[in-house]
């Protein structure tokens, strides 16, 4: 992360009229929390473990850190069903059978068996729909977010502000600008974000839309001009080479979890896979508004907590003898 991320040292919040609302020195805040936040301070004392980083680059760093002999990663695949390998007499494509969970994908593949399925497949999680009975689709919150990304050469922000996030507040519009890490060779990108409420609008498609320059860029500039946004922010919009708009969606986080999952059979319910073998992470478990990277931060915290529980199972810690007990 240090090699590719941009260290973040400050968060500055202002109105479009220039009034300072909040000025956070992240290092000072960390120091105030004492031992609780010591892990955020680098051991060499040369800064914090606090970064801004492009989403695709963060994914690359995390995927490369996975132990290839223990973890299989299946990006860009959609789950169709989960079954117990032995109870359902299921076999892998290689003809193997062993205790665990089998994954059936929409492309026809059957993979497994796996000791644990970790689902980080977003707010419309297919795994969540398998595990929770009568799982409704996510709902539109009426909040829209427009993202723009420009190359490192687009220097519209003040000199020396690379390690700062600047927030701007106006009537009906929130804006954010920042410099983000984008590669292991020190590559950087400039990002601008606009957030506004528009309940009557509808946006079709995946919440993880592809980057593209479209009418979104013109609409973003129009909104910022109307509220009197600083020219440096508007210049960053003009200099952005990638743009897209997404809808913030949500779902009920308090629905009952069908432990083990169930399938209808002969008028009754038959367990499809054993409890303690499937877990949800990130937006699949608890959707977060995509402000200041909260979705990614929460997902990483989920993964850390899961890894700690699995470590206790591996070491035979009392009360953590099985996968099921670790995940409860």
Q: Helix and strand layout, with pairings?
A:
Layout: E1 6-7, E2 10-15, E3 20-25, H1 26-32, E4 51-52, H2 55-64, E5 79-84, E6 101-105, E7 110-114, E8 117-119, H3 126-131, E9 139-151, E10 164-170, E11 173-181, E12 188-197, H4 215-227, H5 231-239, E13 242-250, E14 262-265, E15 268-271, E16 278-280, H6 294-314, H7 323-327
Parallel strand pairs: 2-10, 8-16
Antiparallel strand pairs: 1-4, 2-3, 5-6, 6-7, 9-12, 9-13, 10-11, 11-12, 14-15
State the shape: globular
Helix/strand/pairing category: alpha+beta
Strand elements, count: 16
Total helices: the number is 7
The overall number of domains is: 2
Query: What is the third-level CATH name, the topology of the largest domain?
Result: D-Amino Acid Oxidase, Chain A, domain 2
Mean pLDDT: 80
Low-confidence stretches: 258-269
The main sheet comes to: 7 strands, mixed
Please report the first level of CATH classification, the CATH class of the largest domain. Answer: Alpha Beta
Terminal CA distance reads 31 Å
* Strand percentage: 25-35%
Could you spell the SSE succession in H and E letters? EEEHEHEEEEHEEEEHHEEEEHH
Please give the oligomerization state of what you see: single chain
CATH architectural category of the largest domain: 2-Layer Sandwich
Radius of gyration: 23 Å
């Amino acid at each position: 992360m240090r090699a590719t991320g941009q260290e973040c040292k400050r968060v500055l919040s202002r109105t479009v009229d220039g009034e300072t609302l909040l000025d956070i020195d992240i290092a000072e805040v960390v120091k105030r929390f004492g031992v609780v936040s010591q892990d955020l301070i680098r051991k060499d004392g040369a800064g914090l473990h606090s970064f801004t980083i492009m989403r695709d680059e963060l994914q690359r760093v995390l995927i490369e850190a996975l132990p290839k002999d223990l973890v299989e990663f299946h990006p860009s695949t959609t789950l169709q069903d989960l079954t117990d390998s032995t109870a359902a007499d299921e076999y892998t494509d290689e003809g193997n059978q062993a205790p665990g969970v089998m994954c059936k994908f929409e492309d026809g593949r059957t993979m497994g068996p796996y000791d644990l399925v970790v689902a980080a497949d977003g707010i419309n999680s297919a795994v969540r729909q398998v595990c929770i009975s009568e799982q409704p689709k996510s709902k539109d919150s009426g909040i829209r977010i427009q993202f723009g990304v420009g190359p490192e050469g687009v220097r519209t922000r003040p000199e020396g502000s690379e390690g700062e996030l600047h927030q701007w507040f106006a009537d009906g519009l929130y804006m954010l600008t920042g410099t983000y890490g984008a590669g292991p060779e020190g590559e950087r990108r400039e990002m601008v974000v606009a957030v506004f409420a528009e309940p009557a609008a509808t946006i079709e498609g995946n919440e993880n839309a592809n980057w593209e320059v479209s009418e979104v860029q013109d609409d973003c500039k129009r909104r910022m001009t109307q509220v009197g946004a600083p020219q440096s922010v508007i210049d960053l919009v003009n200099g952005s080479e990638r743009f897209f708009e997404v809808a913030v969606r949500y779902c009920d986080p308090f629905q009952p979890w069908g432990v083990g999952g169930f399938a209808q059979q002969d008028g009754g319910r038959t367990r499809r896979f054993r409890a303690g073998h499937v877990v949800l992470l990130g937006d699949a478990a608890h959707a977060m508004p995509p402000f200041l990277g909260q979705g990614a931060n929460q997902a990483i915290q989920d993964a850390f907590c899961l890894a700690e529980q699995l470590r206790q199972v591996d070491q035979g810690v009392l009360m953590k003898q099985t996968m099921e007990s670790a995940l409860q």
